[in-house]
User: Fold Alpha/beta hydrolase from Dactylosporangium sucinum.
Amino acid sequence: MPTVTSADGTRIAYERGGSGPALVLVDGAMCYRAGGPMRPLAAQLTEHFTVYAYDRRGRGESGDTLPYAPEREVEDLHALVDAAGGDAYLCGISSGAALVMLASSRARAIVLYEPPLHATHDDDYTKQLTELLDEGRKGDAVALFMAKVGMPAEVVAGFRASPGWAPLEAIGHTLAYDDAVLRHWRPAAVRTLVVSGGASPQGLRDGARIAAGAVPGARERVLDGQTHDVDPAALAPVLVEFLLAGDR
Assistant:
């Protein structure tokens, strides 16, 4: 598995496929290459781009050098752009979209899918999350996050008893990383498309509107029938149309 070395020495694992201009995909909370939407999305895009999918620090096969700061994740992403030849598009989903905004100075153009900017300063959540992680209770931190995003308690309990819980608990500490990224987001200054799902909760659609309103000239697109768990087959053509149109 290829890796890049970030500015603080952390090894960041990635995979690459396809051909064409470089496109780096950035996961949101609780996702990594082996457990998230980016591999299926990459498969939809390799006809048009050289696609890079990676494990954010603390997840999958990537390292995790402490102390954490959002700037370290920006450096990770910039190291991947360097590996791609120094010139790349960026696409992020959920909190990964907020990270893309932070790292956009090295991007040709960016696509943001539902950055949850409507919930960037939930002090109660941050306090509870910090306390749980300080006590080493990563499983409880994951449960807290699931409750925050609207998952019913009985569904969380059932999921917690399933085999799929252990991989999530293993990266539960990175929920603090996503929370920090969302608290430190800033407007991008490159060509930007903000996408949301027409069937997503109002809060997430509001977050997308906040992102679009913060970037002069940003374009907005709503995908009918889609939710936060967007279908890669629905999102990919929108990326292709927007990103490649800027090169024509």
User: Anything to note?
Assistant: The chain has two domains: 3-120+185-245, 123-174. Strands lie at 3-5, 11-18, 22-26, 50-54, 88-93, 107-113, 191-197, 219-223.
